[in-house]
């Protein structure tokens, strides 16, 4: 049974950008919370070449119903040509946490 909330995983070029976008999404009530995680090394294929980049990952907490709106908005303010935005369903979470997330997003 799904909790109705999701985590949205996003990578950013740096912590400042992640924090700026994260704060904006919380202020716009598209996310209840964002965790800006530590640096990560990303290895990926882009335009036929294997690339490496130092990035910062972030986890946005929102409702399943708001995830698509959040993903679209992230694409508008993100800064990458092809933003990595992955939605992960949260199957189980404590009821008070689920209620809090739902109360924070529109």
From TrEMBL:
Gene3D superfamilies, alphabetically?
3.30.70.120
GO MF annotation, one: copper ion binding
Family stated for the protein in its record:
Belongs to the CutA family.
Can you say what this protein is called? Dihydroorotate dehydrogenase
Please tell me the species this chain comes from: Sphingosinicella microcystinivorans
One of this protein's Pfam families, by short name? CutA1
Q: Which domain of life is it from?
A: Bacteria
Q: Name one GO biological process term.
A: response to metal ion
First and last residue of the signal peptide: none
Name the InterPro entries on file: Ion_tolerance_CutA (IPR004323), N-reg_PII-like_a/b (IPR011322), N-reg_PII/ATP_PRibTrfase_C (IPR015867)
């Amino acid at each position: 049974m799904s909790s109705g909330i999701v985590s949205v995983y996003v990578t950013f070029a740096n912590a400042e950008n992640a924090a700026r976008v994260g704060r904006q999404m919380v202020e716009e009530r598209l996310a209840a919370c964002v965790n800006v995680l530590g640096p990560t090394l990303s290895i990926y294929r882009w335009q036929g070449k294997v690339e490496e980049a130092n990035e910062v990952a972030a986890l946005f907490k929102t409702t399943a119903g708001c995830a698509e709106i959040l993903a679209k908005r992230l694409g508008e303010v993100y800064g990458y040509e092809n933003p990595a935005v992955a939605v992960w369903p949260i199957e189980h979470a404590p009821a008070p946490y689920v209620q809090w997330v739902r109360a924070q997003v529109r």
